[in-house]
Every structure is written in structure tokens, then in C-alpha cells.
Predict the 3D structure of the following.
Amino acid sequence: MKVRFRGQRFYLREIGVAWLCLAPALGLAVVFVFIPLVQVFFLSFTNWDLLRATKNWIGIKNYEYIFKDPKFLQSIWNTLYFAGVKIPLDLVLSLFIAVMLDRKIKGLRFYRASYFAPVVIPVVAASLIWVWLFDPGLGPFNQILGLFGISPIRWLHDPASSMLSIILFSLWKGLGYDIVIFLAGLQGIPPTYSEAASIDGAGQWKIFFKITLPLLSPVIFFVILMGIINSFKIFTEISVMTPKGGPLYSTGVIVFYIYQQAFENYRIGRAAAASVILFLMILAITTVQRKLGRKFVDYE
Amino acid sequence: MRKLMLILMVLLVFCTLGLSKTKITFWYAISGTSGEALKTLIDRFQTENPTIEVEAVYSGKYADTAQKITAALAANALPNGGVIPAGPIFTGPRGNYAILDYMLKDPTFDMSDFYDGMWDYAKYKGKICAVPYNISTPVLYYNKELMEKAGLDPTKPPSTWEELLDYAKKITQDTNGDGTPDVWGLNMADTAWIFKSFLLQNENDIVKAIPKNEDYDIVPLFDQASALETAEYWKTLIDENAMPVGLHSLAEKQFLGNTLGFYLGTSSRIGTWTGNTAFDFGVGFLPKGKRLGIPIGGAVLVLFPASKDQMDATYQLIKWLTQPDKIAEFAMKTGYIPIRKSSLDLPEMKAFFETKPFYKTAFEQSEYAFSYWHFDAMGTMDSLIVEVLEKIERGVSTTKEGMKWLQETTVEEIEASM
């Protein structure tokens, strides 16, 4: 027996097999993604506190609360600040290093390995090491600054420098990953283009900006997209390095706020409402980005 | 063939007998020396009670354990019992007062031997729903070397607020001349706890319970003049450079690194620190304000609903762990304070005090121990205290604005959690 699906005709058995093959992945997605997703929307309208079994419908009170809570608004700002500072820095640095590593120099393997090493270290372990590096009293960073006569910085303990400290850490931690992606992108560009350009008299810079960069645009787009998604999800290093959200909540990001409401204050409703807002924000940003992407990215 | 059947039957019966051991899971939130001490006790309980099999699981630090328990509550996957921080929050609100029934029905369980302040720590809405266990009080740790360097008598630690401020100021030093002090007079890791101690010492209780329609309203007391005074004292400690701004998470590290004169914190560090520091230190009572007042902290023993066999077995374990000699043993090994009066009278405890006077200090504080009933928003209240102290320290709010905000926000949070 044949059935029509999307304008094509299939055997019913074929469709059955397709569903069967899809089932494991689909099952996991339904149980761990779709059901919780629906539940979060529901919970954001209740006052569930985890301690009791009862959930009462309280309308939009949770949303009212979080939008009046200065900490939530601050957490949105902190997240945007993190993304806004980290992503451009990461992009420029990793692209620069990738271009440097994309040539025949001595010790190439060593450099590549050492840039990639931080990526494979577990975040918690790395964060704990950096807490010590940042220590305002005995920490190596301040001791090195001291050698140059710079007075000690309080790093994670000063609202002015705490988020920058976290950004510094994240840059170090994530750089290697983006470098590898850029390297792959760079090596995927056939040398014929640049050869042709240099025969026509184009200089190194011109080749880079007029040929390499446009051809690399899908990769750049990918790195930015992942950067934004990951920035909005940042939590572990914040929670390990500044367990209370940093001085004056200067490192309290959205996910951290959600965590605090849910597991420190037992306010699942508020946490769910904040999660819904986070979801909408990521949705909006990705939509805009996809639109922009179609305009500016060359997919050959 | 029949014979074979018979043998099989007998074997089967034996097997079931062997299997009829009651198995219970027991979570605990203490690690290191204290965790070891508890584990040793539980092992001994098992040899003495061969019909009970205890699966004792370390459930992570206080915050992690609280998180696991809340998840387990929601998922109906609770252990049978445990040493759980904020235990009454996880039993009382669900109407689980089973442990109280067990104790009341058991003529051999002497509830009056426990300090009253300890029982308050095990109550929800005025009713006992846990048993106090690893209870600690904040004490003063003083670095004798730094006191001497500052020209102070290392045998006389500060005993009043004025002395604390005065001595701490003298200890604070900028030894490498980079413009910021690297040796500090005073610091503490748990600002909420110490601030609550200061409040109590200034004759300002933390919360009061007002009876209302067979229930209670919990009302915070941060709007009193004495609370504002306490906040001002805190601010003075900062302004006069006795205490660093916002470096509280480093306090323990500073003390162990020989760069902190006075550390105010849990007595449970005595066991870990004694003999492990490069300098000589002493332990004393918290310096007193108008009176001595010490809020207790720690975790309690709880009993979660399960089958009758399992609950009986868990109660048996809880009762065994809180016998005076077991309590004494645990206290001597860890620095947690004995929760029963009779533990202090045991000969082994008296002999112990001769050799380890630090413990005596901590244990004698039990008499001034103070606590309030558990309530849903108590964790939130502590976070709010931490937040307001930080704002006051950094000059973002004045003491007056800060305390007003603290009072109002705590009231709101308590109402929202009803």
C-alpha cells in the first residue's frame, strides 16, 4: 500500500521503519525537551515551591515580580554585557591566532595543542584554578602586576572588575575551540583564489579582507551564533568563581538568577517565568540573526 | 526427589531469612573529619544491629544536599533519613512529624536532656519535626602571633565589641607598602550568621512568631533601633579598616595564611585546624555586646516517610546516634557542640577538656545557644542579610536604608512563601 507524503509516494512500511528509527531520538527529545518546555510555561503561572506538593495558579504574578526585581533586570544586563564584550574579543583573537597558525612555522603542533588544551579541561576544575590565580592577596596575577609596580586589583571581589575577570577566564577557556573551527575554515579555502589575486597584484591585507574573510563568512557566522547561545547559557564558571553572584550581583547572569530562585529560594514559579523570558530572548536573537545571516553570508 | 524438594525448601527459607534484613538509605551532608566520625559511628551501629543494613551516602555540601532533597521530595525518591541541613523545612511543611511521635512513644528517649535552644532548631511552626545533631556555634579564633606583632597581649583575646574593633584596627597592616592592607584584623566567611550573632548580642532577636488562627506569623525584627545600631557597628568595622570590604569568601584562607588576626566562624573548624596551622592560635567566646548570644547552625537528623519496618529501623539509628556517649564521641572528634547536657558530664569528656581546652570554650557556649523555628523563607532571609551587608559595606546603601529594605523585603518574602 502506498501513501502520499510531501508530494512523494511511499510504502506504508517504509514510513513505519522511518518512525521506528526516529523513535529513540524523538523519545529522548520528547521526555527531556518538549515536555519540560511545556511544563515550564505552566509552572511560570504557579507558586510551586518544591517543598509542598500543591501548585496554585497565581496568574502573571511571577512575571510581575521578576520585572520589578532589580536583580533580574541586572542579570539581563550582565548577560548582555558578558556577550557584548566576550564575543567580539573572542572573534578577533581566535581569527588572528588561527591565521597565524595556518602557516608553516616551527613548533606548529605545540602551539595548536597549547591553545586547545584549556578546552578539554573541565570547567569546574579550571574555574577553581582561576579563583586562585585571581586571589587578591596571594594570587599570581597580582604578584605579576606588582613586579611592574601596578597596585593589586581585586579581580572577582570588585564590582568593576568581576565580570571582566570572568570574561578573561571564558576567553582563555573557549579560544581553542573557535581557533580549530577557523583553522578548518581557512584550510577549506582553495589556495587558487589568493594565488590568482596575488598575480593580479593584491597585497597580503587585501587578500585577507577581500578574499579570505568573505569566504570565511559562514564560519564566522557559525562562531558568532554559537558564541551568543553559549553566552546566554553561561553558568558553571559564574557559580564556581562567584557563588553569590559576585560583588553587588555584578556577575549574576540570567541562568544564575534562575538557579538561585529555584534551588536557593525554592521559587520554582519565578524561576520558570525567568526561563520563559530567557527562551523568548534567545528565540528573538536567533531569528534576527538568521535573517541577517541570509543577507551577509556567502554560502558559495 | 521429595528429599531434594525439602532441602530446596529449607534453603529457600534460609535465604529469605538472610534477606529479611531491613535496608535503609541514610544521607549525610558532612565531610572530612566530621564525615569520617559519622561513618565510623554508623558502621558500629550496623555491627550492633545486624538486622539493619544502612546505606550511608554522602550527599554533598549543605547547599547541594538541600538541593538534592528538594529534588527528591518532588520526585518521591527520598532516602529514609539523614543528617540534613534545614531539615525541618523538608518535613514540617509536608506534615511529616513522625519523628516526634516516635520519641513521645519511646519511654527511653529523654528529650529533656537536650538543650532547649537545640529543640527550637528542630521545629517548624512550633512543632518538633527533626532531631538536632551536628550543631555548631560561631567562636572567635585569634592568631596569637599577629596579636603580639600589633603589641597586644595574646593571652587576652577581645571580649567586647569595643575591644574587637580596637584590637582588629591595630592588627590591620599594609606590610608590603602597595597601598592596600594585606594583613587584616577581622573577617568572617558567613556574614549572615555573624551578623545574626551581633543582633542577638545587642538584645535584638532575629524573628518572632506571632500566633494567628492556629498558625503563626513569622515577623522579622530588623526594624528595631538595636538592629540599626548593630548595622552601624558593622559599618564602623569597615570604616576604621578593622575588616576588609567584600572579601568575606576569602576569610578562612586569610586566617590559615597567617594574614588575619580574628576569624569568627563555626566551632567545627577546631578539629580540622588544631595542629595544622603554621602559627599559634586560640579559641574564645564571640566578643559580647550587651549580652552573650550565639545563634546555632548545622544540620539535624530527619526521618522521611517509608514502610513501617524502614521507619522503625531509621528511628533506631537516630536514637542510637543521639545517645549521650555517641554524641560525646562525635563532638570530641569534630568540634560540633554536644546537644545533650549529660554528654558534658561523662568522664571521657572531662578528661578530654583537660587536654583540649579549645573544645571546652566551644562546648560551654551551648548554654547561650539560641535559635528560631525553621520557616520556608529562612534561607532567603539569610541571602537578603548577606546582600544588605554588602551594600552597606560598599556604601551603596546607608545603614538606615539598608535595614529598612531588609525588613520590608524579608516581610514580603515570608508572605509570598505562605
Observations:
- DSSP finds 13 helices and two strands in chain A.
- The first helix of chain A runs from residue 12 to 43.
- Strands of chain A lie at 2-5, 8-11.
